[in-house]
TrEMBL record:
Highest taxon of the lineage: Bacteria
InterPro entries assigned to the protein according to its UniProt record, in alphabetical order: AB_hydrolase_fold, DUF900_hydrolase
Protein name: Esterase/lipase superfamily enzyme
Chain intervals for the UniProt region annotation (Disordered): 86-108
First and last residue of the signal peptide: none
Residue ranges with Basic and acidic residues bias: 86-95
C-alpha cells in the first residue's frame, strides 16, 4: 500500500538530493590517530583489573571506540578495536547537579572479568533478572544512555540494566553507515548475549531493542538458541521490539522455525512488537529498502489493503507466522499498534514518548506480555491497538513516560 504524505516525500527528496550533490560522504577517520584516543590506561583496562565504578547504577557493553584523552571518557562514533565494559550514571542526574545538558555521560571502564563479577553479585540479589537495551539508528551515547535510564525509571526494573552501545554516527544522513556498522557488530553482540544467557545466575533476560537495534537482537537470539551448550536459552524469555526497522517478511521467516519454537513458548518466551502507521522514520526505511518494516503496518499487497477496506477495517498489515495458531499464548507473538496514540516529531519512539504506550510497555517489561488492560482487540488474535484518548483529555506525557529522578 502506498501512503506517502508530503513531509515524507520532502525528506526522501532531501536525502536523494544531498546524495546526488555529494553531501552524503564516507565516515571521516578524524584528526587524531585512533591509537592515541585509547592510549590512556583508562581505555585499555586489563581483563582482570578491579572496578572502581560501583557507584554508577547502569552497566554498558560497547563496541564503540572510546576517547580517553580528557578528564571524561567519551564514546565516539567509530568502531572499537575490541569490546569494552563499564558502568555509567544517568545523564539527567548529572544535568540536575551541574545545571548543564552538555555534560558528558559519567562513564568508567573496567576489566571484563570484574564487570561480570559485579553483574553476578547484583543479579544474585535481584533474583537473577537482567534487562538489556539495544538502541537504534542515529543515537549517540548520550541519547541511548538517557533512554536506558528512562526505561529503568519507567519500568521500575530492580535488576541490573545493561546498555549495549554500538557505533552509530548520530546523523540523519548517515543511515547507511549505521546499518553497515550494525552488521559489522553482529558477532560482538551475539557473543555477549550468549555469555549472559549461559551464566548459572541468569534466570531471566528482558531484551529490548529500538529501531535498527532489532536487526542485532533477532539474529543474536537465534544464534544463542542454536549454539548454547545446553541447547536451552529459555531465560531469554521476554523480547520487546520497539519500532523495529527490520524486514517484516524476514522476521516472519526467521522466527518461525527456532526463535518462537513451541518448546520455547512453553518455557515462557514471548515477543512483543510495537508498531505505528504514524512512524515517518520507518516509512522512509520502507522506501529505501523496498519492503515494509516490522514496526510499520504498511500493506505491501494493494489487493490485501483493498480487501481490508472493503470489510470496513483499516488498511494495515502485520507480521503473521505462517501456519501458526496466532493466539499469543500459542504463537508467542503479540503486536501492539500505537498509531492512535503516537507522539513526537516522527512517531518513531512511542514506547518512550506516548503516555499510553509507555504504560503498556512498562507492563510488558514487568510480565504482562499477552493481556493488558487498555488494549483493544482487532480482527487478528495477536494484534491489539491502543485506542485514542477521549477528546480534550491529554495526559502529561513527559511526566508519565520519564518519571522523576526520585522514582
Amino acid at each position: 500500500m502506498t501512503r506517502a504524505g508530503p513531509p515524507r516525500l520532502r525528506l526522501l527528496g532531501l536525502g536523494l538530493a544531498l546524495l546526488a550533490t555529494g553531501c552524503i560522504s564516507p565516515v571521516d577517520y578524524g584528526d587524531v590517530r585512533h591509537s592515541e584516543l585509547v592510549a590512556d590506561p583508562r581505555c585499555d583496562v586489563a581483563p582482570a583489573t578491579g572496578n572502581a565504578t560501583s557507584s554508577h547504577r547502569y552497566f554498558v557493553v560497547t563496541s564503540r571506540l572510546p576517547d580517553c584523552r580528557g578528564s571524561d571518557i567519551l564514546l565516539t562514533r567509530h568502531r572499537g578495536d575490541r569490546m569494552r565494559y563499564g558502568r555509567f550514571a544517568d545523564p539527567r542526574e548529572t544535568e540536575a547537579e551541574t545545571g548543564s545538558d552538555k555534560s558528558p555521560v559519567p562513564l568508567s571502564l573496567s576489566g571484563e572479568q570484574q564487570w561480570w563479577t559485579d553483574l553476578s553479585r547484583i543479579m544474585d540479589n535481584r533474583e537473577g533478572r537482567a534487562l538489556v537495551y539495544v538502541h537504534g539508528f542515529r543515537d549517540n551515547f548520550r541519547i541511548s544512555s538517557e533512554d536506558t535510564a528512562q526505561i529503568a525509571r519507567l519500568t521500575g526494573f530492580t535488576g541490573p540494566v545493561i546498555q549495549y552501545s554500538w557505533p552509530t554516527q548520530g546523523e540523519l544522513l548517515k543511515y547507511v553507515v549505521d546499518e553497515t556498522n550494525m552488521y559489522w557488530d553482529e558477532r560482538n553482540f551475539r557473543r555477549f548475549l550468549m555469555k549472559l544467557a549461559e551464566q548459572p545466575w541468569t534466570r531471566e533476560i528482558v531484551l529490548i531493542s529500538h529501531s535498527l537495534g532489532a536487526r542485532l537482537v533477532i539474529p543474536a537470539v537465534e544464534y544463542v538458541d542454536r549454539n548454547s551448550a545446553s541447547r536451552d536459552s529459555s531465560n531469554i524469555s521476554n523480547i520487546i521490539l520497539a519500532s523495529p526497522d527490520i524486514d517484516r517478511q524476514f522476521f516472519e521467516r526467521e522466527i518461525a522455525a527456532e526463535t518462537l519454537a513451541g518448546r520455547r513458548i512453553k518455557t515462557g518466551r514471548r515477543i512483543t512488537v510495537y508498531t505505528s502507521a504514524e512512524d515517518r522514520a520507518l516509512d522512509l526505511s520502507y522506501r529505501i529498502h523496498g519492503y515494509p518494516r516490522l514496526g510499520s503496518p504498511d500493506c505491501f499487497d494493494p489487493f490485501r489493503a483493498a480487501a481490508l477496506e472493503e470489510k470496513g477495517l483499516p488498511a494495515r498489515c502485520y507480521a503473521v507466522l505462517p501456519g501458526a495458531d496466532m493466539m499469543p499464548a500459542k504463537s508467542g507473538l503479540t503486536v501492539i499498534d500505537t498509531s492512535a496514540v503516537s507522539k513526537g516529531a516522527n512517531g518513531h519512539s512511542d514506547f518512550l514518548r506516548s503516555a499510553t504506550a509507555c504504560l503498556d510497555f512498562a507492563a510488558v517489561v514487568n510480565g504482562e506480555r499477552e493481556r493488558r488492560a487498555g488494549r483493544e482487540a482487532t480482527h487478528l488474535p495477536h494484534v491489539f491497538t491502543l485506542p485514542a484518548l477521549p477528546k480534550g483529555e491529554e495526559p502529561d506525557h513527559p511526566l508519565i513516560c520519564r518519571r522523576t529522578l526520585l522514582q
